Amino acid sequence: MNRPVLTLLTAALAAHAGALTSQAAAEAQARTILPRLTLDDKIGQLSMAHVFRFTEGGRSAPIRADADATFRTLRPGTLLNGGGDAPQPNTPRGWADFLARLDTLGRANNPQGLPAVFGTDAVHGVNNVPAATLYPHNLGLGAAFDPALTREVALATAQDLRALNMGWTFAPVADVGRDPRWGRYYETFGESPWLVADQVEASVDGLQSGGVAATLKHFAGYGLPSLGMDRANAEISARAMHEVFLPPFRAGIRAGALSVMANSGSVNGVPVHASRTLLTDLLRSELGFQGLLVSDWNDIERLITTYRTHTDLVRAAAASVNAGIDVYMVPNSVEAYQGALKEAVQSGLVSEARLDEATLRVLTFKARLGLLDAPLTGSGVLNDHRDLARRAAAATLTLLENPADTLPIRRGRVLVTGPAMDSAAIQLGGWSVNWQGVGKGNVPDVPKVATLAPALKAAAPAGVTVSALPETKRPQLLTAAKGADVIVVAVGEAPGAESQANNPHLSLPDGQITLLRDLLATGKPVVAVLMAGRPLILPSDVQSRLSGLVMAYLPGTQGGAALADALYGRAGFPGRLPFTWPDSLTQVGLWSDRPAEGAGETPLPLYPLGYGLDYTTSVARDLTVTPGPDGVTAQATLTNTGERAGTVTVLLRASLPASGALQATSRPVGVLRAVLKPGESRAVQVTVPHERLSSWVGDAYGPGAWQLLPGQYTLNAGDGKATLSLP
């Protein structure tokens, strides 16, 4: 066998096994192709077309008989489906066959036989496919504070993606969630930059270990929109950008993320899709990103229609490509964009060198996935990940109130009600089968979901009887409530995504508040289970009278089963809040790392970051810190002081020396975590790199820089406290 054939075979086998080709080898392969492409070919490679351009009627339907002609016209380098758009049938085999056919057509009709790489939003499992397992959304995984679990979920997602011939996911979200009113808050891992960074790194590693390209999104500053409105302008200082919003992206880039998606919004009045400072100077020069930068949905056209910062598509295309965008996600007007970009190149608004640079990145991206060597061969068979989904959901559950030890439920008559007690839509949230969630849009399929009421019935221990009534049957419900020993009320937000999921008042629907009040008026213990993508503010007369409050986030396919285990005491509540829970709307913006301002007063939230109760108690003591050449090793003794096994999770916080600017009272820099038996103690340690203890030093305007300031640093974990001097 000659060497070129052996090289190709080795690359193909590696791709089949899920391994990614190295950056150097992939770029070398791409450079042999680039000179053979014409101007039109290159522009095609930089265009992302919707798969419905190739289907009958431009909808969920079979591939058109003349789809080959569409490939020859568009020459697309990349393809995507919208959130919830799918082939027919929307089955694993249907997806695998559909994408394999598109792959074959692309290789036969695109220039140089180049395949068009397919990208999709698989953000909590392969969420467009009803038969797939769906996991808790990122906010819930953030509550587990367990990056190893996040990696396991990401790897399982990658395995399913590859089985369906999908090699590129627009995940993970690396935004730091700083405003819970925002409709994408639940897609973040939480509010604390360095703790989010750990989760992002794990997600990238899991996805790409499974042979799927990860996408860090949305670079950068998307998590602080004005008034909590999606795609609103964010006013962010250079200090906040570096200390708050960049750490997760830096972590994802170090983990090797192959792609980054630009922020759909604007920062300091400049749309990010037209910001060279953010997309080139910051992302590539400062953070060292070498991969593919893709736009978000239709966001170059938004420069004209929404932001009105550019007068026509030629100038908008030139501004975006020159800012750093390599691939335009242009679902509906590919020809218009290609014509505009061609005019921009021919008129000198975009240089041929910049066009070549972007095209080379696309080709390198495909080579890294092994797509230039072998066609797609996905099996069309999904793995059974229900056990993982149940473990993941169980790890997220956070107990907020249990004043009279109503939980766990051990005996008596349990009445279950509420709109979320048997709702796949509420339990799964947005980006589930459809973009806006189950039951919305053009996809009617409802996946099999273990919901709460059936799970409580099926898992009831001896001595417990369970009945369920919908909240719509109010007279019968209130009569049954008077005969119950415990009432479990499952409430939550309707599913949604992006702007449609904004919640400006952080409230439940009025009808659900009325339901809670009606049930509390019976005088029976009421346990509220909240399925939501953010902290919600309950009226004080409701909050103060609850006998139990459980935050379940959006727990995924097996959420009901995991909740039943916890409510019955077969499992505990290991989750801890990955955000600060405000007690009123005026506290939006009260983050755990917010510095004292004005008169030096810092109000107390309803629940702080890291808060959570369990069926056991614990302490963290004897914190020691040992400096090293690259960071500090912190060690504390965690002890389970209760009578039941449980997960002890303690946030490690650092107070930094004065920097000339406001500093956080304490900055979360790591997590100490252990699963302990009753009475068990264990020494747990974590290494804190120097960058997590560094400050962005500079004035209000002008240049700044990271510095590890000389002085005293204080670290806290539970009851433990230690100080040291650095550097």
From TrEMBL:
Annotated EC: 3.2.1.21
Pfam families in UniProt: Glyco_hydro_3, Glyco_hydro_3_C
SUPFAM superfamilies noted in UniProt: (Trans)glycosidases, Beta-D-glucan exohydrolase, C-terminal domain
Domain Glycoside hydrolase family 3 N-terminal: start-end pairs: 38-364
Domain (Glycoside hydrolase family 3 C-terminal) ranges: 398-615
Origin superkingdom: Bacteria
InterPro entries in the cross-refs: Cellulose_Degrad_GH3, GH, Glyco_hydro_3_C, Glyco_hydro_3_C_sf, Glyco_hydro_3_N, Glyco_hydro_3_N_sf, Ig-like_fold
Signal sequence residues: 1-24
Keyword Signal: yes
Reaction equations catalysed: Hydrolysis of terminal, non-reducing beta-D-glucosyl residues with release of beta-D-glucose
Name the UniProt record assigns to this protein: beta-glucosidase
Protein family according to the UniProt entry: Belongs to the glycosyl hydrolase 3 family.
Entry keywords, A to Z: Glycosidase, Hydrolase, Signal
